[in-house]
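> call design_seq(struct)
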């Protein structure tokens, strides 16, 4: 009862328009289920509450218009148009809401009474048609609707929880089913194991029975053996004689084996020809042994024939001696097989020794051939590399010649254009920085009006040879004046004056846009250390520096690196002596250099000794420094007699261990005379001299 009372109190607080008896009745119908009762109560029609007695009001449902004093005829307003009435009606209805039913004539009459005030008209109508009980009932309905929506959401949540619980129960049922299946499989496996165990026990029983039968059979055989012992004694002498014969043969075989070993040792000490002769003799001996063995085998066959005759005579006893005879035959066969296997083993050992000797000779020959092939292959590869390098040098030379010819052609074209247009010295073209740091001011003076027709000025990177690749251009409209080109990215530029399309009239001096860049280069062994500094600012990490051979275009760099905050960039040296440049490019410039620094890679390779005169057996220290080729671990230095033409005839040689700088020590040769040291680079060829030292005199 306490639970029912709590449910009734809670539902009464929610459904304030329903009495407690109705709520209690609904709860009893649904067995005190709070949620089901709440849903049913929400769907019930709300009973009308009795209205409180109040003072009668005139025509509360549709009141008559408020009497308005008749105005003077002069002040009576002209009747408005239909659309004006409709507008007033719509405005008032918007302010009051659509819950109050008032006709258009009443609204407009009150509107005229208030002097055309929409808000006052709405306030009067609200006072006339306002019903507090109805408003309270509406609020109660709204609250009940909100609670009903809350109950619906709560019911959906509970349904979701039930579905989740049902899903979990299904999963548990599925897991339980899987477990039951596994248990069923396990029971089947156990049943199978039990069946197998039963079969094994049955087999063991059968095996025991067979063993018992075997024991009985063995006992029977034992009794039979006892019966044939007399016969065995008769045959014992014959077997003993055969065993003695076999023992003598084994001793002879052992002697032969010892002799063979002695002969093998002698064969190893003698030369090839004697070994061949001994092999022939050994082969003859083996043939002889085979013949002797054949004779022995024939004797055994004769003995076997005699034994069979004896067995025919003793037919009654043979049936009892079958097992013994089979065992004896097997022993004889095994002994014979062992002898055959021993002979084969000896033959195989001899063949193996011959094969080992032949294999060692073949391996030595193959190693020698491989070394020669490897040397030839290395020489071929070195020759190919040298040819490729020569071809690369030739291509570079051809490229340089092509570039020079192109420049000469461009210069000739410029000269021809200048001659063609017959320029006068009065045409001037000057560049200067504008008010902004990234702008260029071009001051021009054509000198005579004959050049003003179809003339224009273009701004070009100084490295750009093609006139159609201008950065920007403007048309010249007077004999003299100034043109401003704004928003120019960093780099070096020049102005070019053209007539018509690309008839060049004049080219200005170069001007730099952007900050000044200071560059310095230091060549250290195989590295080129470039230091840079942006005057009055810092570098962008997308600025880059390129390494070039002198005369190459900006796109033909040998290597490139982005700049760093350290102010230093390191390049690998190309090692080829010659003139080079480093060029600095500021972002977002692509191939218009901001600064250029030229430098030269000099051939400073050397190999020398500080002791030009030494005595025999003295130590000679040779200093070497090689930067124009890549060092390899196969680079080496050889000591040669002065004037020796064949580089393979060195007195002594040592590897440099892959370093391009160091010191190697030699011992002065015992023969007095004049000597020299030669450096050989792996990249140039094993026996191609790269550098030669000063002469060294060895005194007695």
């Amino acid at each position: 009862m306490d639970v029912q009372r709590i449910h009734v109190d809670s539902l009464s607080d929610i459904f304030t328009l329903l009495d407690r008896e109705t709520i209690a009745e609904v709860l009893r119908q649904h067995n005190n289920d709070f949620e089901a009762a709440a849903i049913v109560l929400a769907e019930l029609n709300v009973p009308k509450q009795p209205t409180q007695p109040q003072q009668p009001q005139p025509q509360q449902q549709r009141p008559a218009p408020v009497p308005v004093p008749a105005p003077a005829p002069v002040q009576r307003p002209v009747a408005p148009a239909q659309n004006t009435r409709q507008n007033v009606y719509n405005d008032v209805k918007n302010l009051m809401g659509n819950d109050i039913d008032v006709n258009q004539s009443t609204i407009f009459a009150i509107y005229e009474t208030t002097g055309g005030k929409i808000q006052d008209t709405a306030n009067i109508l609200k006072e006339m048609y306002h019903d507090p009980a109805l408003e309270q009932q509406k609020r109660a309905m709204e609250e009940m609707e909100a609670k009903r929506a809350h109950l619906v959401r709560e019911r959906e949540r509970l349904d979701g929880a039930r579905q989740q619980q049902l899903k979990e129960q299904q999963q548990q049922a599925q897991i339980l089913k899987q477990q039951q299946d596994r248990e069923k499989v396990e029971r089947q496996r156990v049943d199978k194991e039990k069946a197998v165990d039963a079969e094994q026990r049955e087999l063991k029983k059968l095996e025991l029975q067979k063993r018992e039968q075997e024991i009985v059979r063995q006992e029977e055989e034992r009794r039979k053996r006892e019966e044939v012992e007399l016969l065995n004694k008769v045959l014992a002498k014959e077997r003993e004689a055969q065993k003695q014969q076999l023992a003598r043969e084994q001793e002879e075989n052992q002697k032969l084996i010892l002799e063979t070993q002695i002969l093998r040792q002698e064969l190893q000490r003698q030369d090839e020809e004697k070994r061949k002769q001994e092999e022939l003799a050994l082969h003859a001996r083996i043939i002889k042994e085979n013949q002797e063995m054949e004779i022995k085998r024939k004797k055994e066959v004769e003995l076997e024939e005699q034994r069979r005759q004896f067995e025919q005579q003793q037919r009654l006893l043979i049936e009892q001696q079958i097992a013994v005879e089979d065992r004896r035959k097997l022993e004889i066969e095994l002994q014979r097989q062992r002898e055959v296997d021993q002979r084969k083993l000896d033959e195989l050992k001899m063949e193996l020794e011959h094969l080992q000797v032949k294999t060692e000779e073949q391996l030595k020959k193959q190693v020698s051939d491989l070394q020669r092939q490897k040397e030839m292959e290395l020489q071929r590869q070195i020759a190919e590399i040298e040819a490729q390098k020569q071809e690369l040098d030739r291509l570079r030379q051809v490229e340089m010649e092509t570039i020079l010819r192109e420049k000469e052609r461009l210069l000739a074209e410029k000269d021809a254009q200048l001659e063609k247009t017959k320029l006068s010295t009065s045409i001037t073209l000057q560049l200067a920085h504008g008010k902004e740091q990234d702008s260029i001011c071009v001051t021009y003076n054509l000198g005579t009006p004959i050049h003003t027709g179809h003339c224009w000025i273009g701004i070009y990177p100084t490295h750009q040879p093609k006139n159609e690749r201008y950065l920007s251009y403007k048309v010249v409209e007077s004999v003299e004046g100034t043109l401003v080109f704004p928003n120019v990215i960093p780099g070096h530029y020049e102005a070019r004056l053209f007539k018509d399309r690309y008839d060049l009239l004049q080219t200005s001096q170069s001007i730099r846009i952007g900050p000044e860049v200071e560059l310095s280069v230091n060549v250290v062994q195989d590295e080129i250390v470039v230091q840079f500094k942006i005057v009055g600012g810092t570098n962008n990490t997308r600025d880059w520096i390129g390494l070039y051979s002198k005369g190459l275009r900006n796109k033909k760099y040998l290597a490139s690196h982005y700049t760093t905050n350290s102010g230093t960039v390191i390049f690998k040296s190309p090692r080829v002596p010659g003139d080079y440049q480093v060029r600095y490019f500021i972002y977002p410039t692509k191939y218009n250099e901001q600064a250029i620094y030229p430098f030269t890679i000099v051939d400073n390779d050397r190999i020398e000794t500080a002791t030009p005169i030494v005595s025999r057996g003295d130590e000679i220290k040779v200093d070497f420094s090689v930067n124009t080729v890549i060092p390899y671990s196969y680079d080496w230095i050889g000591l040669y007699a002065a004037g020796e033409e064949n580089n393979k005839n060195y007195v002594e040689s040592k590897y440099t261990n892959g370093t391009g700088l160091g010191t190697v020590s030699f011992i002065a040769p015992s023969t007095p005379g004049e000597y020299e040291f030669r450096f050989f680079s792996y990249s140039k060829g094993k026996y191609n001299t790269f550098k030669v030292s000063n002469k060294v005199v060895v005194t007695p």
